[in-house]
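can u do me a favor
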């Protein structure tokens, strides 16, 4: 079973994402900010990170940069898909330059979510 780390400060989006992806047989771990992402990565491995861009404590861009600088080869190369309500503020080039593989705009389209998760975990 593929393991997904969901970094999202909105409980509503976290819960919906968890429900949708659990139904698709993914194992979901949820955290509220970038600092917690790094803590979780320290404890276990994941197949994909769904990363909200605007989070308290440490945002998604800063967190992604830190993930990409980890010493563990497998962990530093985990696919990261940004979830953002401000996709217009970033170009795909900017996401890629910061180490983000792809993005899903908010409000979330759950078919698109499942499709992207499958793409990066298959």
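np, heres the sequence
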């Amino acid at each position: 079973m593929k393991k997904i780390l969901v970094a999202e400060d909105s409980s509503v989006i976290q819960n919906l994402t968890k429900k949708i992806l659990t139904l698709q047989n993914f194992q979901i771990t949820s955290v509220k900010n970038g600092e917690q992402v790094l803590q979780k990565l320290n404890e276990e491995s994941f197949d994909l990170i769904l990363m909200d861009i605007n989070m308290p404590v440490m945002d998604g861009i800063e967190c992604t940069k830190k993930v990409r600088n980890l010493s563990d080869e497998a962990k530093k190369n985990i696919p990261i898909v940004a979830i953002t309500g401000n996709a217009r503020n970033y170009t795909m080039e900017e996401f890629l330059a910061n180490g983000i593989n792809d993005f899903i705009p908010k409000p979330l389209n759950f078919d698109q979510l499942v499709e992207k998760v499958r793409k990066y975990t298959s």
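Residues 3-121 form a domain with the Rossmann fold fold (CATH 3.40.50.2300). hope that helps!!
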